[in-house]
Amino acid sequence: MKINQSLLRIVLTFIISTILILILGYSLLARSFYLWGLDNSLAMNAIHIEKLINIQGYETVESKLDVIDTDLYPNYQSLPDVIKSNYAPEDFSTQDHYSFEVKDAWYDYPEAAYFIHPAKSANGEMYFIVNVFDDQFLVTEFERIMVESKMPSIGSVAIVAILTFMLIGFSLAQYIARPVSKLHQWAQQLTLKTIADPVPAFGFRELDELAEKIHTNLQNIEKTLSRESQFLQHASHELRTPIAVILSNASLMEHMWHDAPPACQKPLDRINRAGLTMSHLTETLLWLTRNKDYQPKIETFNLSHLTEELVEEHQYLLGGKDVTVELALSSVTQSLPKVMIRIIIANLIRNAMQHTDSGHILIKLEQETLTIVNWGELLTGEKSDGFGLGIKLVKQICTNQGWHYQQDVVHDACTVEVIFTTTKRKA
Known about the structure:
The chain has 427 residues and is an alpha+beta fold. It has three domains: 7-159, Beta-Lactamase; 190-292, Orthogonal Bundle (Helix Hairpins), CATH 1.10.287; 295-419, Heat Shock Protein 90. 54% of the residues lie in helices and 18% in strands. The chain has ten helices and eleven strands. The protein has a five-stranded mixed β-sheet. A four-stranded antiparallel β-sheet has the order 1-4-3-2. A hairpin with a 2-residue loop joins strand 8 (356-366) and strand 9 (369-378). It is rod-shaped and about 150 Å long. The relative contact order is 0.06. Mean pLDDT is 79; it is low at 380-388 and 423-427.
């Protein structure tokens, strides 16, 4: 299954995702830095209180700590249960400062924050300097700092940053997408007629290299087509002489051998028809490689007689096969390019007879519409032996002449329809 992805959408998604992650990360860091700063400040304050206790005594300092929202606990057992649930006695060291937050999820704002500073008294026993702040104090204090420092809120900064970076990202994506769109339009308008024009600049080295590769590949294709066209022209010209020799000698034999037995007359007729087919084929190849304005010779002839002749000519393809051929031909006389019509009908009949191993073939002609249907066991693939160029040549002739061509395969039946309408034929 083909997946269509937009380069612009991928770039925008990457840029916006990166911006959102960065803004979310820095928003969380800003809140963490506030709590980290508070922790450091309280640690320095606790060290100062410890020094005062060493100088003035535990009881003297304890009575003065209510002013700065600090509590003293003489031992581990007297600590609040929430602290004891987070730390065991052996976890504390007088060389460190401890803190933790109480919250439901990692991204939530803390409901409470605990700051613990262990210290030792003069008699060697450990006591604890504790600061506890609930969410009302933390939020209020944080907002007070933001107001006093005239700093915008994290939410406001995040929204402005998101919108700004989204605008920058969209502008950058558009800046990249414009030359890509230009390359797309240039590639769509590139034809064999404009292949000689210089490659325009697209503003990015990678796009310029891609355009050069596209241009080089198309130039190689154009050279290959030109060589093939020249080969067809030269081959067709070279085949004219031996074909003319075959036809002239076959005609000479037919006039000189009046008393030829019937058994020899049929091979002679087949030689004549094969020579004419080759002559028509070379003329068709030359026509296909010439200017489109060139048109083959228009002749008035009977389509049904031509079809019967071609069916008889290809009967050898049914040798050894259990295939029946039904002809439903109405007498139709038209003025059309006979050479083209002969090539088309011959290839369609040959294709039907070659690809049907057993079954039934219907060849129907009504006015300018030829229909060939073959039922039965169909062979796969297209054979290219004989004098025909196959269905591809038929399609190319119909396209050049503006004739309707349609092929349908349903179950065990293959139907081909060609309408030789002169109103659609190119002038």
